[in-house]
Design goal:
alpha+beta; Cytochrome Bc1 Complex, Chain D, domain 2; 2 domains; 14 helices
Length: 315
């Protein structure tokens, strides 16, 4: 495992610090505080059940998505597997070959192709932005969208929309959580020290950091959420929190409806980011108008509870 823990003492962020930050919640928009030691590029890795091996350099090549389990999904189109130089990274590098995604980006598996196409177009035109310009993964996607063209976006969207999104996030209600830091991939990682109060936040952590760093598309995540947040979120989602019930657009099981995206079982950090961005006015475009009344009176606590509930559902 990379020598990640050597620098954690000065980088650890407590629940109080995360909860009291101004602006977008730090736990949903994690930003790496400093550069971590680079791994040995020649180091070779192996994963359970995989017949392939990759070097660290191989799994960090953004123009060659590391595909540990090629038999577990359809053949990736070239734009998904390799991208296009310059500027268009392989879609499967960040979103993974099976489209499961990670907390710092989006799960694309099973999302409507029309929705994916529209979101990339909105990013390219400037209609969809982010509430922060600090998060590297968001900045990278905005740059890729601007460098992409309609034909390759459609190919990628068609591929990901045909994949089945599977249960990927284990949601645990708790009062206390591991001490954490922001790692070098805009992800929350466990740091040494005793557990601390969760406060008003969600911590989405890799089930196995080593496997996640090797970009294992079969190793998922744990989402620690405050006690009671799932039940509160269920009530908000079903009532519409003063607007329309979420099922009215996202489908009765929140698994998508036409060009409206699926929410069930998806990353709670990603859900919170989108709800915050809608309210902040940086997400616009054809679908944004429907969301404006939904988020107009939505508080930080409500976003947290809604995301906890939706992430807990079976996709």
């Amino acid at each position: 495992m990379r020598k990640l823990l050597m620098l954690l003492g000065v980088l650890a962020l407590t629940g109080t610090a995360l909860a009291q930050a101004n602006g977008p919640p730090i736990w949903a928009y994690p930003v790496t505080a400093r550069k971590f030691p680079a791994p040995d590029p020649a180091q070779t890795g192996r994963l359970p059940g995989a017949k392939r091996t990759f070097t660290r350099a191989g799994v960090n090549d953004r123009f060659n998505a590391p595909d540990w389990y090629p038999a577990s999904h359809p053949k990736m189109p070239d734009i998904v597997a390799h991208g296009r130089k310059p500027g268009v990274f392989a879609c499967g590098y960040c979103h993974l070959p099976n489209g499961q995604g990670r907390p710092e980006n989006a799960s694309l598996a099973g999302q409507p192709a029309a929705y994916i196409v529209q979101q990339v177009a909105d990013m390219r035109s400037g209609l969809r932005k982010s509430s922060t310009d600090k998060m590297g993964s968001i900045n990278a996607m905005l740059a890729v969208a601007k460098a992409s063209n309609d034909a390759e976006v459609k190919i990628a969207a068609d591929y990901f929309s045909r994949l089945k999104y599977t249960k990927w996030i284990r949601v645990i209600e708790t009062d206390r959580v591991p001490r954490t830091i922001v790692g070098d991939r805009n992800m929350m990682n466990v740091a040494p020290g005793p557990r601390e109060p969760i406060g008003k936040r969600i911590l989405e952590l890799p089930e196995n950091l080593e496997r996640t760093e090797w970009r294992d598309s079969k190793s998922g995540f744990i989402a620690y959420v405050p006690k009671g947040s799932i039940a509160r979120g269920k009530a908000l989602v079903e009532s519409g929190a003063g607007a329309f019930p979420c099922a009215a657009c996202h489908g009765p099981d929140y698994k998508g409806n036409g060009a409206v995206p699926a929410l069930a079982g998806r990353s709670p950090a990603q859900i919170v980011r989108q709800l915050y961005d809608f309210k902040a006015g940086v997400r616009n475009g054809p679908g944004a108008a429907m969301m404006k009344p939904q988020v107009a009176n939505m508080t930080d606590d409500m976003r947290l509870d809604i995301a906890a509930y939706l992430a807990s559902l079976q996709p």
